[in-house]
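Sharing a chain and its predicted structure for anyone who wants a worked example. Both blocks are below, sequence first, tokens second.
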Amino acid sequence: MEYEIKEEEKFRFIEEGEGEPLVLLHGLFGALSNFMDLIEYFRHHNKVVVPMLPLFELDLLHTTVGGLEKFVHKFIEQRDYKNINLLGNSLGGHVALMHILKHPERIKSLTLTGSSGLFENGMGDTYPKRGDYEFIRKKTELTFYDPKVATKELVDEVYEMVNIRLKAIKIIALAKSAIRNNLGEELNQIQQPTLLIWGNNDTITPPFVGREFQRLIPNSELHFIDKCGHAPMMETPEEFNTILHKFLRKLNEPAAVA
């Protein structure tokens, strides 16, 4: 399914469907393909919004988690979204956390899946090697429980990113910024209902990270998906969408009368 990429001032984004906004923030190697099943399912229930994060457009000084959060804040203000259900995967989860801590007023709920912000293995001990396709293929496969999910198209996307010198430098800058920016001491400030969906076989943000997020975020619930890695919305879309939809429906139910 192809979706129209809209442009408004400096922002590029997808907006599909009607209803409460469901805003999706992709990760460091994220692309629209990461969210295709999610968009297709939820556009029948929500206004699904995917801003293209400027991973490579910001100057190097602002190529940080904080720089991306400022961009998301300006985007939300520009579009005047309210009662937002904010969802982030990996680095996108980290940006979502920073945003809800700085600007909670428009956010109704938070969903994190494989989020950084506490701990992540990232690229392990090595950073992207330019020109080494096999290295990139293996690293991309590690994102998933089933390496076949790392299709040639997906590996090609990642390879294209890291094979351009300036892009590779910015990927490293963002990865280092995520590691430096630990939010552990601030997470207890989050008041919004929070859904945590974690792959039981995530090697980048392992299951203990999901448990720690649940311990630190007051109003949170944690769901694990078996045989699933760092990107559940790609690898197990049906189960992911079922968990998310149940959570969002529950938020709209009238409070039980005592």
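Comments welcome. The chain has one domain: 6-119+182-251.
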